[in-house]
Amino acid sequence: MSSPCDPSYARAGDVATAVMVMDSRLKAIYDGKGGSDPEQRRMADDFARSMTAADADALLDGVCTLIYMYMDWLRTVCERHDKEVIEHVVPTLVATMRMMPNTFRPEVIPTMAGLLIASGTGLSPNLWRAQYGDWTRAEMNPLEATAVILAEHINRMVGDDQEFATRLITDALAATDEA
């Protein structure tokens, strides 16, 4: 019996913009600027103001798709080494979230962990989340940060290749375009 949270029922959203936002955040981290670059902040603010509600929904779905794709890739890698993705990835990422109290207030950590677990078990994170109501404003930054720390985890895992997670998605998008 198929689940109503099966990824085949989910909208992919704007994955291209989601990966650009995630990649921009990663580059800021790797450059040592974090979120403190005023030019980067201005461009992000301008971008956010230009978005319609439909654009924002598509971006939110795109971020959830990134989380799903990253957890799917991690699940495949873990299975090759007889490891369980939930056991291997989720505790590390939750520990990272707990060290970032300005981004991850304690009440959003269970939701972000739930997105990782849903994805790790093959469920759509956005459909899983939808069962509990609409996204809240308080969940937006943690959602973005979850995708970023997941990508950064993958980059470290493959030998500190700072662009691996981005290439993983852009290669998948390119393959989809060719099909």
TrEMBL record:
Report the protein name in the record: Uncharacterized protein
From what organism does this protein derive? Kitasatospora putterlickiae
Q: What is the lineage of its organism?
A: Bacteria, Bacillati, Actinomycetota, Actinomycetes, Kitasatosporales
